[in-house]
Amino acid sequence: MKFFDTDWNCIFHWLAVWNRLSVAARRHYLLAVPSHAATVAAEGYGGDLAFALQSGLVESVSTGRLRPTQASVPFRALMAQLAKFPLFDHKPTRQLLDEYVVKHYIREESDSIRSSWNKPFWNSLAWPRSFLDLADVRGWEERYLTWVEKQGRPASSWRWSPRPSQPPKVTWFPSPEIGEAAQCLVRRAVDSVQPVPILSLPDALPERLRPGLEPALKACLRFMLLYPALRQDSLEAVIGLCPAVVYLLNRPAPVPPAVEPCKDLIGVAFRLEDMTRVLAEAATGECRINRSSYGQRLFKVIEDKLREEFVTLPPWLEAHHEFGSRLATAIGCLTSLKLAEDKPSSTKRLLAATAKDRKWLAQPAANRLAGLLFEIRRRQPEKIHFSYDPLSYMPGQFSFGEMKKGDFDHHAWLGSVWRQTPDEGCVALNAFLDYHARVSHPLRNPAIPEARRPRFASAYDGSERALREEAIEEICREALEKFFWQRLVPLGCVQTTLREDGQIWFRLSPAGKYLFGQAAELAYGQPAADAAIVVQPNFDIVFLQPNLSAEVELSPLAEHVGNGVGTLFRLSRRRVILAASQGTTAEAALTLLQKYSSKPLPANVTEELRSWFAACRSLVMRRAVLIDAGDAETALRVRRLLGPDCRGLGSTLLEWPGTHVHPKLRAKLTEQGLFLEKSQGPAGSELLKTDDPTEDQM
Amino acid sequence: MNEFHPENPLIVQGDHTVLVEVDSPLYAEARDALARFAELVKSPEHIHTYRITPLSIWNACAVGDTAETIVGALRRLSKYPLPGHVGASVRDFAARYGCLKLTRRDGDSLVLSVRDLPLAEEMAHQKALAPLLRARPAPLEFEVAAVERGRLKQALIKLGFPTEDLAGYLAGEQFPLALHLAALSGRPFAPRDYQREAAELFHAGGAERGGSGVIVLPCGAGKTIVGMACMALVRASTLILVTSVTAARQWKTELLDKTTLTEEDIGEYCGDNKDVRPVTLATYQILTHRPSKESEFTHFKIFDQRDWGLIIYDEVHLLPAPVFQITASLQARRRLGLTATLVREDGLENEVFALIGPKKYDVPWKEMEKQGWIAKAVCTEIRLPMTEERRMDYAVAEARHKFRIASENPGKLRLVRQLLDRHRDVPVLIIGMYVDQVEGFAREIGLPLLSGASSQAKRDVVYGQFRRGEIRALVVSKIANFSVDLPDAAVAIQVSGMFGSRQEEAQRLGRILRPKPGENQAHFYSLVSRDTVEQDFALNRQLFLCEQGYEYRIITLDSPDESLSQPA
């Protein structure tokens, strides 16, 4: 049953009775409302039993129990609906509002309404204000219904202009008085802010407009200007503006988040660590990318290996940073910084380290992190973020980015918010975000000069429309939260912990202070040890201390068998041969090992490495023409005629460099009775290939 | 990694291996701590590797350690914070100790007692245990046939649950024997400290937690003495399983020399003899002999012919599969395994631990060398090229023939002569895998040869001559890999080996590790053909010894005719 289809005159009658019942009696009545056949025990009405019977609200049945009377059917139905939608007792959820709309509107209209909650319509103060501001209520109605009708039609790609508006078939404002009465009702709700008792509505109208109360009320309900509900505690029937608006207008003032000490804080810059691990893998020369992937998906075996090597995050961080996105982001950062590149070839596609990577890796971890933060700081916001830039300051689209006037500095805005974290102690993340979404959002932030504030927030599609004020806080909170999870956390700019109440608490780390300009220098990680490894006689390379440079430089030479410290590599013939193929020499390899080793290299390792390198041979491939002379004498004659460039490979086989024998030389041979003919050689022989443009010249 | 203690010697890795920096000032403390709850895996020069396994934790718990003391020791001595799951694993392993106990009820049956009902239910539902558990007289108890004792423990270990075997041992036929205070030759004799320690650890004062286990000592360290010391502690009839008749004779000689046993007390169950006496020596070969594949192993009856109080498995790493099976039913007897190299290419080391018993004692080879109990060994690999003609043969040969072509490089003969000349004053052993090759060497150089075809009588004669110094050099095939007592062989020249067998390499080195007078120096040469698969296999062979701390010097000759120009 829809509220705006109800006989409100009847309702007002019964509400007068309802008002005289005690809360207990009201609650008892509600037990029977779900079904006409439902009955309740008479005792439940307590002292109100007689009144309830006398008023005709309830009647006895044969069993001695009571049920609502037939006359009170509309009232009973309304109570049933009101009981389902407790609109004003808690912060209304989107789901509750959606259910309300689905219940009261036909499908096309409810779909349109629900899809437009984020636009400046019914769930904002602007909506009832727009109704009050207009003198022509009928025109207002017409525009609304036209909009609904337009929204309800399937979109046509051929017609962008709206169809001509049609007069509504049925108007909810059959007379100006009803429109005026409706405006009075709405004005009453706007002025009181809090929901008012439904029974008080007649008092909102001047005497002359009271006859139009019922149709006016229906119209207000029909056009989502007013919403009825039952208070949960008193079961009083009230009516007010959109619950979301009522909530926002009545919520308490923002309170700064509490600061408390926390322990077990974690603040690893795992983006840096992930980049480092991926780069170390890229430096092996065998980091293969799936050729068929659009992006840069690595081979599964490599991904599995990196999964083991990536820093393990606690559950509350891992929920926001699963492995796949971490890997993709690390690769994106490396390629963006030109530390690694996608190197395709005819047979494979590699993620390869560039020449910059060694210099980068040779730096202490603190310097690398500082460099990364600097790179992020210097990135400017872009107009529309359709592509994902892992190094942008603001991750994703910044909905406050579209300006008409002024030049909003979102770096400064974010910094002004996050610098408000306390120096000592931690704050709860949700409390921090809720608070700053209200007090620090860009349209209102007092720290931002008015001339530089955004004028509006843009919608997802980039169009420049002003959003309702209530939505702006949500957008602001979302932006802050996204910045927290996608920039501060992975860059180690905050230290977090999960407390027993399930809340995440945090504080800025030294890296965070550096990012926001509160610290000139940054301390992070351990300095790399010079002599960090021991090469064992069994070819193991043991890292006694972490040394990233050593790890990267040694990875081409040895199989990676471990992580962190301990036995990380094992020298192997396979890797040495691979290194040799890329130009490494035995002496260079031994020098490299000795550079990082704290002990002399074992003699057998030295000897074996030299032996492996020495077993490699460089082969030279060149194109040539083979001439089979058939016998030694002919071969000699041909050689004399062709000159010193013609080389004997055997007694009868000759080699002529290049891809063909010049026609003049052929003629010379022909003159002597030596005819050069093309061989019918085995299939696939180079000489028979037709892709050689000079072949005919043979 | 915020807590870094560079002075600490340990690095605990996520796979439960522990690296120990030998040069750390706290090395000795770390080594002693680790010996209680971790197994030594490798001990090359600078970094030793231990592994924490469920079995090693259980053994530690058996002697009173707790998870907290173990984790505490790791934390205290580690350079870095422990990987989180290592501590949890240690606690988990330790928590399983004592969950299951095997005790003896009346008669022939045992009882498996479980600590709690959920575990009991889990045991009841394990398919692998179903055929072994007879009845369930109580919610936390299962009846087990005594004959299934070994198989039950094996199955439970595979499921990840150690069983505290308190079912005790059959005392066996009492047979008092003692060690002499002097050998028959008159020289004073006493077990060395580590030998006595190993025997006492095995025996554990006669308690149920002792009486079964494996003792790992380097070649030449006197495992036979350890065996005899265990016999003296157990004082019961003993069955000793050995690898060959020669080894049996060797044991007999030692028993007669160093214990109160007489000839009548010792029987040989091998070859033509089938004597079963209070102390009986049998070969694995005879035990696993059967007329056909379908027949039974007729000589297994030896296990029932006497009420054995102790069974000793010499060179236990060679335990053949059928003997595994019979050992599973011998769990009521005390069992001692002896070996220098518990490395099996088939990976069945865990079976040895499950059926014989856990490793009770292990000393790094280099440790023994430092203390002078075994000779210092210099290992040298000499790489010589093949002639061009032979290289062509090698290049065109099928893969399975390449190894032999490389191994039988004729150039090795010249090198052997040079080495014999260099070490003319000390006894030398030349060992090869291919009979044709070793026969050629013996013939060309004029040395006696012992191979599989040599009769036992000839072997005894030649070994005796070699031992007495009447023969300075001896050529042997792979029969000499094990249990040949050549106390004065100071040089071994390996001219060919069994592909990449690490065990063989170690055993061959072991032939020359007995302590020597004077500098106590031994030399081990391995001749390989350069740039061939033989060289690749040689690298693998050396791994075990490298991991025991031995370093190989490598001499590479550039031409087939090049001589050794520097002292090896």
**Sheet with most strands: strand arrangement of chain A:** 6-9-11-10
Indicate the multimeric state: heterodimer
Beta content of chain A comes to 5-15%
Distance between the termini of chain B: 46 Å
Determine the fraction of residues in helical runs of chain A and give it as a percent range: 40-55%
Could you tell me the number of beta strands of chain A?
18
Structural class of chain B: alpha/beta
Q: What summary fits the major beta sheet of chain B?
A: 8 strands, mixed
Q: Please mark out the parts of chain B with pLDDT under 50 across 5 or more consecutive residues, or reply none.
A: none
How far do the termini of chain A sit from each other? 95 Å
> Tally of extended strands of chain B?
24
**What is the radius of gyration of chain A?**
41 Å
- Helix content percent band of chain B: 25-40%
Taken from the alpha-carbon principal axes, the silhouette of chain B is: globular
User: In what range is the share of β-strand residues of chain B?
Assistant: 15-25%
Instruction: Characterize the biggest β-sheet of chain A.
Output: 4 strands, antiparallel
Spell out the key features of this protein.
heterodimer; A: 698 residues; alpha+beta; 4-stranded antiparallel sheet; 27 helices; 41% helix; disordered C terminus; B: 568 residues; 7-stranded parallel sheet
Brief synopsis:
The complex is a heterodimer of chains A (698) and B (568). Chain A is of the alpha+beta class.
Explained architecture:
The complex is a heterodimer of chains A (698) and B (568). With 698 residues, chain A is an alpha+beta fold. Chain A has 27 helices and 18 strands. In chain A, the strands form six sheets. In chain A, strands 6-9-11-10 form a four-stranded antiparallel beta sheet. In chain A, strands 12-13-15-14 form a four-stranded antiparallel beta sheet. A three-stranded antiparallel beta sheet of chain A has the order 3-5-4. The longest helix of chain A has 20 residues, at 469-488. Chain A starts with 7 loop residues before the first helix and ends in a 27-residue tail after the last helix. Residues 154-167, 402-406, 459-467 and 684-698 of chain A have low confidence and may be disordered. Chain B is built from 20 helices and 24 strands. Chain B is α/β, with parallel strands linked by helices. In chain B, a hairpin with a 2-residue loop joins strand 12 (266-270) and strand 13. In chain B, the strands form four sheets. Chain B has an eight-stranded mixed beta sheet. In chain B, strands 20-21-19-22-23-18-24 form a seven-stranded parallel beta sheet, sandwiched between helices. The interface between A and B is medium-sized, with 25 and 34 residues.
